[in-house]
From TrEMBL:
Pfam family, any one: TetR_C_8
Domain of life of the source: Bacteria
Residue ranges of domain HTH tetR-type in the record: 6-66
PANTHER family linked: ACREF/ENVCD OPERON REPRESSOR-RELATED (PTHR43479), TETR-FAMILY TRANSCRIPTIONAL REGULATOR (PTHR43479:SF7)
Keywords: DNA-binding, Membrane, Repressor, Transmembrane, Transmembrane helix
Name under which the protein is recorded: TetR/AcrR family transcriptional regulator
DNA-binding region: 29-48
Sequence intervals crossing the membrane: 146-165
């Protein structure tokens, strides 16, 4: 991509993020964005149809990057155990990706984009599980519907992202991945160091 295009899009992104610290996305206009980015409206329309198209393209850009990371760790010959234990490096790289794209993430979490993003994550969980996970995993007899697993996983994923962003990304991607995998493998009671009552 042309460096001038990259620079212009970065300025637009920064302008939108700055404006969203001052007012709701719904009341922000294209004129607001172009004035803050110090570009003319014609330049904006060379890249985006309107502010909603801009939001959709941001969502698509982030989603494609996350999808690439997740698919990189899937191998068809994995056993169920291997598949589960490879989730740690996958989660680490997913959060590194989110850390690098903090601006995009902030914009999506502050707008209606969070709802479409969550829906896409849920659908991606289902699609990738059915089409990309190892055959030994998909042949496994699950106790609950895969759709429910995808819904639970995507809602949890979005909630963790929101928590991480609001806490100013205090945990490293490695620490966050450790927290998540501990809860997955040990269950919340053991992971949090709370022993169940013996009464």
């Amino acid at each position: 991509m042309d460096r001038r295009v990259v620079k212009t899009r970065k300025e637009i992104r920064k302008a939108l993020l700055s404006l969203m610290d001052e007012k709701d996305f719904e009341v922000i206009t294209v004129l607001d964005i172009t004035e803050r980015a110090n570009i003319n409206r014609g330049t904006f329309y060379l890249h985006y149809i309107d502010k909603y198209d801009l939001l959709e393209k941001y969502e698509q850009e982030l989603f494609e990057k996350l999808e690439h990371v997740v698919l990189a760790y899937l191998k068809d010959d994995d056993t169920m155990s291997e598949f589960l234990h490879k989730r740690y490096p996958t989660i680490v790289h997913v959060f590194h990706c989110l850390q690098e794209e903090r601006e995009l993430l902030s914009i999506l979490l502050k707008t209606r984009g969070i709802f479409t993003f969550q829906d896409r994550v849920k659908n991606a969980f289902i699609y990738m599980f059915r089409n990309y996970t190892p055959s030994k995993v998909t042949e496994h007899q699950f106790s609950y519907p895969v759709d429910f697993l995808a819904l639970f996983g995507s809602a949890t994923f979005i909630s963790v992202i929101q928590y991480w962003l609001k806490s100013d990304m205090k945990q490293t991607p490695e620490q966050l991945a450790k927290m998540i995998t501990d809860i997955i493998f040990k269950g919340p009671i053991e992971a949090f160091g709370v022993l169940p009552s013996t009464k």
